Amino acid sequence: MGAKVLFFVIEDFSGCDRKDIYRRFRDKGRLKPDELTVHHSWIAGDMSRCFLLVEADDVTLLQRWVVEWADLVEFEIVPVATSKDMVAALAGHL
Predict the structure, then answer these.
(1) Which residue among 14, 20, 23, 52 sits deepest, i.e. has the most Cβ atoms within 10 Å of its Cβ?
(2) For residue 1, is pLDDT > 70?
(3) C-alpha–C-alpha distance, residues 52 and 29, integer Å
(4) Which CATH architecture is the domain 5-90 placed in?
């Protein structure tokens, strides 16, 4: 596998009954592959979205996770880097 990559994941619940989402989460958990690490998660005040910082070394781990929730949740997945890592990566190029 490759190097670990951070992803900012936005789960959008607006297209379905949120009770179904929370019921599945209560009964089955996140349904994510074990190799996918969730560092933090936040829920919007109106409970319409969840924001997560996750780490994986293979994008297919995220795809496997999305498949488990695709009937209830819309996902936006953005690869990200910390500011510190970005400054280090750009050192000597500015």
Answers:
(1) 52
(2) no
(3) 15
(4) 2-Layer Sandwich (3.30)
Q: Is 43 helix (H, G, I), strand (E, B) or coil?
A: strand
| Domain-wise residue ranges, the chain | 5-90
Do 84 and 28 touch, CB atoms closer than 8 A? no
| pTM greater than the 0.70 cutoff | yes
Cα gap 48→50, rounded to integer Å? 7
CA distance 8 to 62: 11
Cβ-based neighbours of 69, under 8 Å, separated by 6 or more? 11, 21, 24, 31, 75
Beta bridge partners of 43: 50
